[in-house]
Amino acid sequence: MNRCCRKRKVPVHSRRSKEIRDMQKRLMLHSGEAALSALGGVRREYSLRPRFEIAPGQMLGAVWNDENGARRFSSFHWGITPAFWDGEQHVGHQLFSARAETLAQKMAFADSLKFRRALVPIDGFWQWTRPCRGSDEKPRPFLFRSKDNAPLYLAAIWELDGEGQRRLAIISVESNRLTEPFSDRMPAILRPADAQLWLERGVVEPKPLLRALRTPAARELLVMPTAKAHGRAGLEAAPDARDALALVYGSDFRADKPKFPARRRMVMRDHEIGGHVFFKTRSFTRDDATRWHPIVDVECGHVFCDCPDFRYRHEHHEPDIWTPHWWCKHVRRAVENLKRHGELPVRSLPSESEELLAA
Q1: pLDDT tens digits, residue range 290-341?
Q2: Range 83-91 average pLDDT
Q3: Residues 6+ positions from 177 with CB-CB distance below 8 Å
Q4: Residue 213's closest CA among 158, 154, 168, 159?
C-alpha cells in the first residue's frame, strides 16, 4: 500500500489530551436574575433556569447591544465556525475561545472586537486536573468562583453564521497562580466598570478594550474541590438553586479544602541543659531529612528555633511562650509537649521596683 494512502493513526495521548481540554470548558449559572440586575436595563429574551455544566457546542445566554443600543440577554451558540471552513458543521471545527493577546491582529476576530462584543454572566467555571501521561488517574473537577459569591462576567465576541444564528467565543487570558496548576489559560473575567465599557457600542478602539482583558488576581477567586464528579454535560436542571452544587453532586461535594491524611510531625525531646528543653523534629515543609531544633526555656519562657520561619519572626519580635502568634510550627509543637507534661513556667507578676521603673 502506498504510504501516502495510509490512514494516519492519532496517538491515544493526543485524543486523551484533547478530551481533557474540552472537559475544562464548563460554565455554571444559577443566579441569572442577580447577574442581569447588576448590569442594569437588560431585556431578557432567554431562559434563566439554573444550569451547572454548560459545555461547548451548547446554547447559552449572553448580554449584547443591538443596533439601537438596547441591552439584551439572548441565546448564543457557544462556538464560532471559521469563515474559511466550507465543510460540514461539526463541533470539532468550531472555535470556543479566542486568545486576548492576538485578538486585534487576527482578521477573524478584529471586526468582532470592534462591533460585536458580549458578556457571559456565570457563577463559576470548572477546571479539571491534568493527570500525567500514561497515568490511570481520572481528571478531577474543581470549581472557581468569586470569593463574595458575586456573579462573574466573561468577555466574549460573537458573529452571525450563514443561517443567521448568533455564535460566540469566550476570550481567554493567561492563568493566574490559582488556576495555573489546572490549565495554561482561563476565561477573561471583567471588572464591573470594564464590563460596562465592554458593552458600550460607541467604543471601537482596541486599546481600551484590550486593557480590560486582564488576568484576575488569585485573591479574587476561590477554588472549591469536589470528591467525585460525573463530568456529563446533561446535568443542567435542578429544582432549587440555593445549593446548586449539592444538588448536582449530592453528598460527594465538599465546599472546603480536601482533607488528606495528616502527616504527624511529632517533636521529640532531645535533652535538657540549664532549664532549656531541646527538641528535634523533621521539617514541616520539606520532604527531605532536614531537621529543626526548637528550644524552650522553662524558667523564663523564652523560645527559639533554627528554622527560617522563626528567624524571620525573631528579627522583629522576641517570641516567648505567651506570644503564640509569633511562634513557628516547631515551637508550637514543643510548647504542646511541655503543656502535656505540666512543665510550662507560670508568668510572675512584676515586683514593686519594676513597677516604679516602668512608671
Answers
A1: 778 888 888 888 888 888 888 777 766 778 888 887 888 888 888 888 888 8
A2: 53
A3: 218
A4: 154
Cell numbers describing residue 247: 444538588
Is a pLDDT exceeding 90 seen at residue 85?
A: no
Between 1 and 104, residue with greater pLDDT: 104
- Model pLDDT, residue 261: 47
Q: Helices 32-39 and 192-199: crossing angle, nearest 10°? A: 70
Q: β-strands 71-78, 59-65: how paired?
A: antiparallel
**What are φ and ψ of residue 100, in 5° steps?**
-65, -30
Tally of CA atoms within 13 A in the half-sphere of 11 that contains its CB: 5
CA angle 38, 44, 47 (to 5 degrees): 105
| Sequence ranges of the chain with CATH classification 3.90.1680.10 | 9-252
Place of cell 527559639: 304
Phi/psi region, residue 223 (left: phi>0; alpha: psi -120 to 50; beta: rest), is beta
Per-residue confidence band for 289, with pLDDT thresholds at 50, 70 and 90: low
Q: Are 51 and 29 in contact (CB under 8 A)?
A: yes
Q: Which fold has domain 9-252?
A: hypothetical protein yedk fold (3.90.1680)
